[in-house]
Every structure is written in C-alpha cells, then in structure tokens.
Amino acid sequence: MRYSGFRVIKEALTGHKGWKPTWRDAEPQPEYDIIIIGGGGHGLATAYYLAKQFGQKRIAVVEKGWIGGGNVGRNTTIIRSNYMLDGNEPFYEFSLKLWEGLEQDFNYNAMVSQRGILNLIHSDPQRDAFVRRGNAMILNGADAEYLSREQLQEELPFLNYDNARFPIKGGLAQRRGGTVRHDAVAWGYARGADQHGVDIIQNCEVKGIRQKNGKAIGVETSRGFIGAKKIGCAVAGNSSRIMGMVNRKLPIESHVLQAFVSEGLKPVLPGVITFGAGHFYVSQSDKGGLVFGGDIDGYNSYAQRGNLPVVEDVCEGGMAIMPMIGRARVLRMWGGVMDMSMDGSPIIDKTDIEGLYFNGGWCYGGFKATPASGWCFAHLLAKDEPHETATAYRFDRFHKGLMIDEKGMGAQPNLH
User: Fold this and answer.
1) CA 151 – CA 54 distance, rounded (Å)
2) HSE-CB for 95 with a 13 A CA cutoff
3) Separation CA 332–CA 259 (nearest Å)
4) pLDDT digit of tens for each residue in the chain (416 aa)?
5) Do strands 170-174 and 117-121 pair parallel, antiparallel, or not at all (unpaired)?
6) What separation in angstroms does the CA of 309 have from each of 182, 240, 306?
7) Mapping DSSP to helix (H, G, I), strand (E, B) and coil, where does residue 305 land?
8) Residue 106, SS3?
9) Would you say 205 and 190 are in contact if contact means Cβ atoms under 8 Å apart?
10) Is 395 helix (H, G, I), strand (E, B) or coil?
11) Are residues 416 and 298 in contact, defined by beta-carbon separation less than 8 angstroms?
C-alpha cells in the first residue's frame, strides 16, 4: 500500500477499513544472511538500505522491546550538519541530504521540517570560532550564515540580548537544519524495510553471540538461536553490553541524556536555538510544546531517567537566554541512554571477529545521523569496505592518534 492524499480521502469516505498494518510482526526464521541487532533508527535504516540500495536478501532486525521504544523515540528531534572537522562534516551533510528526500524515498510522512538552527554567539573569541566553523561547513558543501546582533533582534526579539553575563553578539545559522518527528522515522524505516522483505522481530532480546572457529555464526535470543552469516550491532547505549558478550571492551561510556517538553504554547520559536554560553537547545513541536535539553548526566547509567541537578542546569540555561520560558510549565521529561565515545565521534567498522560489525558511539549526534548511519553501515555490511563519508569512523583511530575531537559533541572522560 502506498500512502497519498487520495488514499486518505478514499479511506475517509469508506470508514477507514482499508488500512493495513504498517509492517509485519515477523516470526524468527532459523537463519538469515544478515541480522541487525537493534530495532532503533540506525538498525532499521541499515536494514532498509541493505535491501533497497544494496540488494541484500534474507535480513532480520531483532529488537528486545518494541519499535520506537529506544533512543529513536526519546530525543529532541533535531537535524543539522553544522560540524567543522573533515572526518565529520561530509558525513553529516550526506545525512542532511538524505533527510531532505527521505519522505519521498520511503513514502511515509516523517514530518521533516527544515525550520533552521541557530547557534548563539556571546563573545568575540566565540565569534571567531563560529565563523571558522561556518567556513568549514561551506567548504564541505553545507550552508552556513553569520547573523549580526541586529539581524537576530529582528528575527528573535524575545531573547535576552543584554544579559550581563551572556550578551548576545550574533549567531551562526544553518537554514537547512530543523526537526523531524522522531517516532515517525522509526515507523517509516520499519515500513520500508518490511516492504523489501526484511523480517522485523520485536520482543526478541539478544542473550549472546555464538561463535565457531573465531567467526560469529548467530545470536542467542529470548526466542531461541538465530543463525546468520553476518551480524551488525546498532544498539546505542547498550553497545558495551552487547560487545561484552564477545569479551570486547569499547572506548564508549553510557550516559543518560535528559529531554523536556513544556505545555503547548502558541507559536513562539521559528526554529531551533542553541545557547552558546551553556549547553541548552530548544525548538517548538507541531503540538506547541517547547522541546529542550542540555548536558548529559555526569555518571554512567543504563536507566532511561536522569537526576535533578541536570534539570536545574538545563532550566537555568533556558532562563539565561529566554526569560519568558520561566512562565511555561514542564509537561514531561525523559532520558535516553547515550553511547558516548571518547572523542565525541562515532564508530562504523568491522570488529576483529569475522562476521561481526559495529555501529555506535554516536553521543549527541545519533538521531540527526540516522539516514547516513544506516546507509554507511549497510555499505560496510554489503561490501566489506567503508563508505567514502565514513572512512574516519574506525576503531583503530584511538590507537593511531587520529581522534575526531569535535568540540561539544561527546564525552570528556577527564570530567567524568
């Protein structure tokens, strides 16, 4: 079934009796060519592109819970490619381009809204750093625009420009950035993968990875053993748990990242705004709620909840740049388990175990990377070589001293 405006009208006139399930709730088969562990955005996108773009068959996605119940449904929905370093910027620009054509590609309304993202500038040195970042973005084919204080006051009059500690001196804007409906991304990729023959197996927890003669040959699950020629791990904050099943220690820490939604308000924010002097970012959802977040909790955890000091810190950041936010009530809050790599950049690579591949370490950048992560991981699984935009995302960069230290993007081990 293809979705369209005509289909909606037809179903409305016929009692909505023709809709079919978005995807099959598949039963596990004894063996597959490729198994993807993790039914989040990255795992589903990988399966989708493996089948659609690379022509692979007999693929399964195994998810311990339900589709959309992990980090893909527990984030602040922001998409952007405003990175600086050569190892990252081409990848995230590739991802943003995939976002721009995603809904037409998999025929599902993911509510992609390129409303723009703005990073505020509060000091002269920060202006220099952001101008440098903008130039790096432009050199890599992305869009970037420096906005003066006067331009910002015209576009965003409600910000606190004369804050004694954090005066606003300008901003770096990426007009093509914005937001996407997070759970719709999971549903859209699940539907697309299912239409290409992928088995999506929910409530199927991986308990172990079986090996034979140094090769991964399948996964032990709560629903029995499932054989595979290749296994891809894409489980975000649970990466260390899964790789621990094969006695591999990762350069990754698991931390909670909290997010918040206010009560519904009339339209006040035209796009995404980030506070340059503290870690605070905010946008407004289609339902009217302000969606915002800040720093990770400063301790390791696998719990999908956070602590109150971070709540206070995030709210203080919001009040510093936007005093009016103090009048809004927080409707709900939640936490996602982030796989924080030691240099703030991801890993898409083979492991030293034949047939076992890894995708993780996404830090704050996981959701915005979903399309490119899936495409590049599928490329690696199908061709056994990295995609051109992901050549820097190797395990050995930590041994070779080739870290991609993208400031503000990942864990700082010395602070934990």
Assistant:
1) 46
2) 31
3) 9
4) 889 999 999 999 999 999 999 999 999 999 999 999 999 999 999 999 999 999 999 999 999 999 999 999 999 999 999 999 999 999 999 999 999 999 999 999 999 999 999 999 999 999 999 999 999 999 999 999 999 999 999 999 999 999 889 999 999 999 999 999 999 999 999 999 999 999 999 999 999 999 999 999 999 999 999 999 999 999 999 999 999 999 999 999 999 999 999 999 999 999 999 998 888 999 999 999 999 999 888 888 998 888 899 999 999 999 999 999 999 999 999 999 999 998 889 999 999 999 999 999 999 889 999 999 999 999 999 999 999 999 999 999 989 999 898 865 556 655 53
5) antiparallel
6) 26, 26, 9
7) coil
8) helix
9) no
10) coil
11) yes
Fill in the amino acid letter for 317: G
Query: What does the alpha-carbon distance between residue 69 and residue 334 come to, in Å, rounded to a whole number?
Result: 12
In three-state secondary structure terms, 408 is coil
Across-strand partners of 38? none
For the packed helices 124-139 and 89-106, what is the interaxial angle rounded to 10 degrees?
60
Query: CA–CA distance from 64 to each of 36, 40, 131, 200, 359 (Å)?
Result: 12, 10, 44, 11, 17
**Helix H or strand E segment including 372:** helix 370-383
What backbone phi and psi angles, to 5 degrees, belong to 193?
-65, -45
130 vs 87, 147, 177, 323, CA distance in Å? 18, 11, 16, 25
Distance between CA atoms of residues 311 and 317, nearest Å: 10
Which pair of tokens denotes residue 400?
């070779």
Beta strands of 77-197 (E only): which ranges? 78-79, 117-121, 145-148, 170-174, 178-179
- Helix, strand, or coil here: 56? coil
Q: Contact 357/382 with Cβ under 8 angstroms?
A: no
> In this structure, are residues 366 and 286 in contact, taking their beta carbons and an 8 Å threshold?
no
Tell which residue, 151, 141, 159, has the closest CA to residue 82. 141
Closest CA relative to residue 4, chosen from 91, 95, 99, 103: 103
Give the pairing of strands 206-212 and 199-201.
unpaired
pTM: 0.95
For residue 414, give the 3-state DSSP assignment. Answer: helix
Query: Of 254, 344, 257, 255, which is closest to residue 78 (Cα–Cα)?
Result: 257
Q: Give me 298's structure tokens.
A: 């400063």
The Cα 239–Cα 241 span in angstroms is: 5
Structure tokens, 16: 């909505």
